[in-house]
Design brief:
cell membrane, mainly alpha, LysE family translocator, transmembrane, membrane
Length: 183
Amino acid sequence: MPGPAQGALFARVVSRGAASAWSFIVGMVAGNAVWLLATIFGLSALAVRFATVFVVVKWLGVLFLLYMAWRLWKSDGTRAAQQPERSGSGFLAGAFLTLGNPKAMVFFGAVLPQAFDMTALSSAQIALILTLGIAVDFLVQLFYLILARQTRSFISSPKRVRIADRTAAAMMAGCAGAIAAKG
């Protein structure tokens, strides 16, 4: 199910093109891999031990969403040549956004214990679960990338771009509010 990370991915592709999204997608997938590993190795113990880290990451994700929403809202609908990103900025944005959204943690925490005895996983089983999780997540994000690329080609006039930007900005701000409101 799409969430704030997919909204940010869409906004990135619509505003900068599909090529700008690869490092962001890798960051999103890496963030989900962290949640998957945390679930495999006992998320509750990890969350209790590093509760402050989880809170900081959550608020970094909220701030990033609000920053993206502000930039999209103030957009004039034209797309000038974009400055190249700093190396790793897309990766960090994708990772922080995914780590700041507890949806993946809840999903993995609900699904994995139903399918596996989490106390008896071998190293090979852990590697298989992690590999499959990363592969499926990457394919899902690739689907969103293709959809966003198609949307970019549909949105050609500055008026349509401005409408899309403001819609995405409102959705991102709403997602930021929802994440911030969760305890």
